[in-house]
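Materials and Methods. Structural model of Stomatin (EPB72)-like 3b. The 281-residue sequence of Stomatin (EPB72)-like 3b from Tetraodon nigroviridis was retrieved and submitted for structure prediction as follows.
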Amino acid sequence: QHIEMEQSKRRVRSDDDLISERTGSLGCVGWILVILSTIFVAVLFPITIWFCVKIVQEYERAVIFRLGRITDRKAKGPGIFFILPCTDSFVKVDLRTVSFDIPPQEILTKDSVTVSVDGVVYFRVSDPIASVANVINADFSTRLLAQTTLRNVLGTKNLAELLSDREGIAHSMQTNLDEATDHWGIKVERVEIKDVKLPHQLQRAMAAEAEAAREARAKVIAAEGEMNASRALKEASLVIAESPSALQLRYLQTLNTIAAEKNSTIIFPLPMDVMSHFMRK
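The predicted structure was written out as tokens:
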């Protein structure tokens, strides 16, 4: 943690030094042009006021350039600000969160399985000056970097990790993207894996494997049920053998069950000892 704090401090110092270089002195000629522009604005004040006053929305910031140099370390806005019409120009930067879809990427996993993965990235501009001065197009650059980061991160995972640990993969992607785009003034807020598409042959193989596993579990459960039922019948037979009247009660209970179903035919079972008596005669 201490090392990370030192690195962040060095990064802040380097960014401050870079901004200081950009907001340095305009030079003699530059100040002459600024003075002339100010005099021009003052002379034609009723007209030039409409060219000097600019407005940015609550979710926007303005990065002002004066003769090609950034005028301040902090972007202007929201609200009203003033510029010199002849020497100043400005760039509006939107601070709202932007979301975009990562196109499906054909990726070879660590266990040599080809899959197609897509995702969603949410990011916003945290430093308007860096997003304008350090990269040509921060939005487009972040989109391209997200695609390559997705391929790099998923290339180190096997298929089982890819299917079961989407949250961990998304967090790893967010960390890598955030570190890479920090110099561009971009803050990656969230990364989500949308869909993982497997080849059809692999889908059929996995479905067959899952079906075989389910059938094996069903057979084991059925065998355990038969074993438990056999043990219960054995215990019941022992109880009936100890009490002859229990067999008669069981017989009457069976007749009651048959009569409740409104059957027209009722079978009366005869004890085997009675049948054996007639057979001997």
